[in-house]
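re: ur msg from earlier - yeah i can do the copper (II) ion complex, just paste it... oh wait u already did. ok heres what im feeding in:
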Amino acid sequence: MRAIPGIVALALLVGACQQPAELKVEDAWVRLPAVAGRPGAAYFTIQGGDTPDTLLAVATRAALRVELHETSDQNGLKAMRPIRDVAIPAAGTVAFAPGGKHVMLFDLGPNVKAGERIPLALSFAGGKRLEVQAMVVGAGEMPPK
Ligand SMILES: [Cu+2]
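and the outut:
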């Protein structure tokens, strides 16, 4: 019976080697504001890499100002506040989604229209900068899938 833990450990190790976790950003999309001039919001899912990292900032040429925000429940009222950075656990998943973490896009350019894609660049503390194309949807539309 003594050999079994060793075998299990070896199997886990081999499994880990076959599928190294890679920091990546998936399913990026942007919802336009219902009223022109109001901020839009960007959402995506971040898959953590082999080591923990931290999302520091998101940039896009489609908006003049970008902030990381988090919506939370405060005594039954939804309130959002800016957040400085977001920890990404190793091999973990962090979702930016309506009702939770999101990227606020202030002063969207007039050329940002539903059905188009805009680039988002995500900067991480570990030095990586990942650019994704976010699908733009109208105010009342469902997220693209
Ligand atoms: Cu916000």
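cool cool. The chain has one domain: 21-137. ping me if u need the other ligands too
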